[in-house]
Amino acid sequence: MKRLPIILASLFSLSSLFAYDFSAVVSDGTTLKFYNGEFKDPELKQTETFTGAFTTPVGGSGLSFFSVEGSVQHKLEKTTGDNSSSKNSVIADCTLFKFSTAKKLEGGKNLQVSAGRFYYSDVTGIVFSQPNDGLYFKYGGKKLEASVYGGYTGLQNVKNVSILTSKGAVWAPKDEKDVYDFSSPYAVGSLFVSAPYFFKNQTISFECMGMFNVAGPADLKDDDNRLYGTICLAGPMSSSVFYSISGTMQTEDFSDFGILGKFSLNYFVPVKNTTVGLNGLYASSSNGKIKAFTGFSKSVVCLSRNEDLCSEIMKFGASASFLPVPKIFVGAGFDTVYKLSGSSTEFYGFQAGISGTYRIFSDLKMSLSLSNFTGKYKEASRTDVSFGLALAL
């Protein structure tokens, strides 16, 4: 920590122009959760968050930047009814601490480099999607794009980053500390190759990812290493219809494989900025050489009481979003959800949600959302009502 002011001073001294940008946001969120299809004895979740961000150019090229973002959050979780309880917690985190630069090459090509703590997501947005500490290199050209990423998860705050074990359980420390506690340690690597517009404006992409259990400050026991391979095809079907379809295979030792498949089809209507879409998702269950698919970052794909993860589940749905009047954005969607068990498929329930955001002023916005999961079994049903307010300072 004693070296941090020296490092920052060195970076800022490289700036030919002492220009910087600072922003801050104060937000408040309230959520009421009702269970079993009954609107009584709700569970309350109340959060207040302060987020500050700072960016400054490095050097005189205008292509290099240093960025920092941190937040402090107070959270109240309260249950009512016969087994009422209340829990207060404070969470502090640095979600961004990044140096990034870009260089233009001959022939319209470019090279991008990022180092530090920043958000990274795989092509599916399900396997890996979280802030991380690492290095990122990207080469871009008209016919080929390629990137390499390497990082380490063990210094992340476990209160803001949820990592799954190879068995599909959410990892948690034995004795979690207040404010900040370290997450499970893995070395993460990714190789991504994409051919933009390789055939009639269609783009094909390949990505390989590996997660390897390593030493760290957290008390993680030995866990299986994981490998993921993904192929994705995306592009326009017409001037207003776009699609994306991807398939992912997961393995630990090549003796069995988990499978993830997803697709989306979106139609953009030039009225009120309207978008209408169809989507589907499949995450395999254990059946012979096929194993239950398990991602790395926690990804909730079902609004049930259990908040089912992306494993042994299948769903199909539709969504829509539009701007009915200026400053108001509305989105809605619904899904039919099925649970998988071996070779059998069982209807699990319907889920639906609607949300609206009103940008009152350029620096003040308000949001309201309602979601419901009606399960085949009453115990899985859940209804959420959420209200949010955010003010940019």
Number of helices: 1
- From the alpha-carbon coordinates, what is the Rg to the nearest angstrom? 23 Å
* Element pattern in H and E: HEEEEEEEEEEEEEEEEEEE
Largest sheet: 18 strands, antiparallel, barrel
Give the overall form. Answer: globular
**Mean pLDDT across every amino acid position:** 92
Bin the strand percentage.
over 45%
What structural class do helix, strand and pairing data support?
A: mainly beta
Report on the architecture of this protein:
The protein is 3% helix and 61% strand. With 393 residues, it is mainly beta. It has an 18-stranded antiparallel β-barrel. The protein is globular and about 70 Å long. It starts with a helix and ends with a strand.
In short:
By secondary structure, the chain is mostly beta strands.
SSE layout and pairing:
Elements lengths: L3 H10 L7 E15 L7 E15 L6 E16 L5 E20 L5 E12 L7 E12 L4 E8 L33 E14 L2 E12 L12 E11 L4 E11 L5 E13 L4 E10 L6 E2 L21 E13 L2 E14 L2 E18 L2 E12 L6 E11 L1
Parallel strand pairs: 12-14
Antiparallel strand pairs: 1-2, 1-19, 2-3, 3-4, 4-5, 5-6, 6-7, 7-8, 8-9, 9-10, 10-11, 11-12, 12-13, 13-15, 15-16, 16-17, 17-18, 18-19
